Amino acid sequence: MTQSNYRHLLSALVQNVPGVLAHISGMLASRGFNIDSLAVGETEDPKLSRMTVVVVGDNSVLEQVRKQLEKIVTVVRVFDISSNDFVERDLLLVKISAPAGGVRTEIRELVDIFRGKVVDVGPDEVMIEISGREGKVQAFIERVRPYGIRELVRTGRIAMVRSGEIKGGSDRFATDTATG
């Protein structure tokens, strides 16, 4: 990827209150930032949620997004995960046409190769769960497309910095303020 279309992973620790997601996504949209991926969920502290946002652009886009996030009162911390050594995952659920017999066996072999699992079986289709890096998930989709994808849903990217100190973060509040 060129510098102009680099994918930045930002992690925002936010207060777990109604309207935070709408506020943040609305702010990003109103300033013309395209969200490539977004995932949000409660953290180990039920008072806080973590939003993982993927935005595409150069470093100036990253800095503008981060500055805008930091202005929001309910945002506690913002980290540039992509400037660290991190683990990332996407989750895919996909229904594939699979009549009983040889086709199901072929699909099952692909599922095993991609370390996925069959989570539901119907008379003419199977539902598969795959998790992993974006490239793995995309490769599986392309590999099963010829069988006939009936329905597909993916999560946004989630990511966590590996053990060690986090670079590229900002903390507007002391930890005691964030947790109450």
From TrEMBL:
GO BP terms: isoleucine biosynthetic process; L-valine biosynthetic process
First and last residue of the signal peptide: none
GO molecular function, one term: acetolactate synthase regulator activity
InterPro entries named among the record's database cross-references: Acetalactate_synth_ssu, Acetolactate_synth/TF_NikR_C, Acetolactate_synth_ssu_C, ACT-like_dom_sf, ACT_dom, AHAS_ACT, AHAS_small-like_ACT
CDD domains attached to this UniProt entry: ACT_AHAS
Residues in ACT domain copies: 9-83
Pathway(s) annotated for this protein in UniProt: Amino-acid biosynthesis; L-isoleucine biosynthesis; L-isoleucine from 2-oxobutanoate: step 1/4; Amino-acid biosynthesis; L-valine biosynthesis; L-valine from pyruvate: step 1/4
Record field: catalytic activity: 2 pyruvate + H(+) = (2S)-2-acetolactate + CO2
Primary enzyme class: transferase
Keyword Transferase: yes
Record EC number: 2.2.1.6
Pfam family, one: ACT_AHAS_ss
GO annotation, cellular component aspect: cytosol
Alphabetical keyword list: Amino-acid biosynthesis, Branched-chain amino acid biosynthesis, Transferase
Domain of life: Bacteria
Subunit structure: Dimer of large and small chains.
Function: Catalyzes the conversion of 2 pyruvate molecules into acetolactate in the first common step of the biosynthetic pathway of the branched-amino acids such as leucine, isoleucine, and valine.
Family: Belongs to the acetolactate synthase small subunit family.
Name by which UniProt lists this protein: Acetolactate synthase small subunit
The species this protein was found in: Allorhodopirellula solitaria
